[in-house]
Amino acid sequence: MEKILDLLIEIQLADDEIKGTQSAIHTIPSKIDLFEKEIQQATESLQERQSRVQEIRKTYKMKEGDIAENESKITKLNAQTFAVKTNEEYRAIINEIDFLKTENTKIEDTMMNLLEEEETLKATLGKAESETAEYIAVRKEKLNTMIAEKEALREKLDATKACFEHAFARLPDAVKELYQKIKKVRGNAVCLIEDQTCTGCSSILTPQQLNELKKRNEILTCDNCGRILIYTDPDASP
Ligand SMILES: [Zn+2]
């Protein structure tokens, strides 16, 4: 009986470890998801800034083209002023030239703003690039650690399950059944006694119950929660 009681303690410990390992494994995917999301967001935010620089350059070139186009229109209009026959025609051409010049001034203002924006972006882009690279590297390392941790936990789980099965197989059939029945209802089947108390439900044991339990010659269950109660000598080394 002594052996069976010790075996039951060993089995319960393995069972607890299995549960703990399983719940640790369950928390990992959401952590991995979080790191992956953070990496994606950082990459996208940097790409946005990089593509804004390219966009500015493209727009700037287009504006340069617009100015050149207006300039050539102005040159042509200027040439036409020599061939006009009426004042009205002359004024119309001058008005057109003035309009184009005003347009070009507006375009030049826009271009100045674009240059300023590009400068500001470029001044911070290098730093943003190195910061993003560092940010991503840290998360990738954490991801790899997580993946390795998950793998290690899986291995531990398999090993603990094997220990459990090995120990459980050594129990008499009736005790196996009892263990499974209590586990199904209570989550855990075996409880140690601490300070004359059932560690499963905290109910206090009578001195008589305690005496019976101390004998360790049969399997006794808690009157209150039904779990198997086992007395271990507090002075004995574990
Ligand atoms: Zn109890």
Topology:
Blueprint (H helix, E strand, L loop, with lengths): L1 H80 L5 H83 L3 H14 L3 E5 L2 E2 L8 H9 L4 E2 L6 E3 L8
Parallel strand pairs: 1-4
Antiparallel strand pairs: 1-2, 3-4
Helix pairs in contact: 1-2
The structure holds zinc ion.
The site of zinc ion has 8 residues, from loops.
How would you describe the overall organization of this protein?
- This protein is mainly α and about 240 residues long.
- Helix content is about 80%, strand content about 5%.
- The protein folds into 2 domains: about 25-155, Helix Hairpins (Orthogonal Bundle); about 175-230, no CATH class.
- A 4-stranded mixed sheet has the order 2-1-4-3.
- α1 (about 1-80) packs antiparallel against α2.
- Bound molecules: zinc ion.
- The site of zinc ion (ZN) has 8 residues, from loops.
Descriptive terms for the model:
238 residues; mainly alpha; 2 domains; 78% helix; 5% strand; binds zinc ion
What's this model, at a glance?
This protein has 238 residues and is mainly α. It has four helices and four strands, in the order H-H-H-E-E-H-E-E. Strand 1 (190-194) and strand 2 (197-198) form a beta hairpin.
Mean pLDDT: 95
Q: What name does the CATH topology of the largest domain carry?
A: Helix Hairpins
CATH class category of the largest domain: Mainly Alpha
Q: Let me know the number of strands.
A: 4
The shape, in one word, is rod-shaped
Estimate the strand proportion: 5-15%
Q: What Rg, in angstroms, do the CA atoms define?
A: 41 Å
